[in-house]
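Tokens as discussed.
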């Protein structure tokens, strides 16, 4: 089966490509230079040439502050871009896997969101991603929309400066006498490797629809950092940041926990707990981190 991945050189896209290769699929990786989803002619030309049976769209304008500064561009990429891909997927009669976000919710509740809960975004990024979901559902035929949360992976995220939260914490622990992290935002840290496995599994089914796709369980960013240091056997002076210590320019949900209700209902959920996902990530990246330290 031939699978085209839009955003194949990104944090998630690279892991999806690797997982598909392991599964024996033929992968066509498309970078931004090859397929600009905000331009219909560009994405159509690239996908027509690839002629895939499945399209995985991981491309997006992720940087929350930049979306707020340039809402028109954010809408072109996250909303109209999703529409462009969905239209071409329908033309090719290809399955479409479209990646969305937990930021479609406002975080006002204190229990995990399920797929049927009302989406009320707080910022431009969330609004444009929700619009993208609507376009995929309106224009697509064979689609999977996956909402995920707090992603981290071994490949750099170009839209967020390259370094994920895990690597940032490890770097700060080596550079500073004290590390301070907020404790009032609750998330489900999710490894891109696990999302990639879920995408491969779903793409081989015809169980189309909207899915939440995150690791099981939840924690605050402070608790996530504490677990990173404990699993890495690092002695760190970790403190809870005071209220307002790290002011944000854009409103963000304080509670971003998703329940994989639809995946579990279909018997397709392959996510483990966020702690198990973190342990696997740290084990897989330890050799690379050690080699980098020796070079430095």
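Sequence:
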């Amino acid at each position: 089966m031939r699978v085209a991945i839009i955003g194949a050189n990104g944090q998630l896209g690279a892991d999806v490509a690797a997982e598909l290769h392991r599964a024996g699929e033929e992968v066509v990786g498309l970078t931004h230079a090859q397929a600009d989803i905000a331009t219909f002619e560009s994405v159509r030309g690239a996908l027509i040439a690839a002629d895939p049976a499945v399209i995985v769209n991981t491309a997006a304008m992720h940087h929350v502050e930049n979306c707020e500064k340039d809402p028109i561009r954010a809408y072109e990429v996250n909303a109209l871009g999703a529409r462009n891909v969905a239209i071409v997927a329908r033309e090719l009669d290809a399955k479409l896997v479209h990646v969305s976000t937990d930021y479609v919710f406002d975080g006002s509740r204190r229990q995990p969101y399920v797929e049927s809960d009302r989406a009320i975004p707080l910022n431009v990024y969330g609004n444009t991603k929700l619009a993208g979901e609507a376009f995929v559902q309106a224009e697509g035929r064979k689609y999977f929309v996956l909402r995920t949360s707090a992603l981290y992976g071994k490949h750099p995220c170009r839209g967020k400066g390259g370094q994920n939260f895990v690597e940032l914490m490890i770097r700060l622990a080596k550079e500073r006498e004290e590390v301070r992290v907020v404790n009032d935002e609750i998330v489900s840290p999710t490894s891109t490797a696990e999302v990639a496995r879920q995408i491969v599994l779903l793409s081989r089914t015809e169980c189309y629809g909207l899915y939440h796709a995150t690791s099981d369980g939840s924690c605050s960013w402070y608790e996530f950092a504490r677990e990173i240091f404990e699993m890495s056997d690092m002695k760190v002076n970790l403190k809870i940041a005071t209220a307002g210590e790290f002011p944000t320019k854009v409103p963000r949900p304080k509670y971003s926990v998703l329940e994989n209700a639809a995946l579990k209902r279909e018997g397709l959920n392959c996510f483990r707990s966020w702690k198990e996902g973190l342990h696997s990530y740290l084990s897989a990246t330890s050799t690379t981190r050690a080699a980098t330290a020796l070079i430095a």
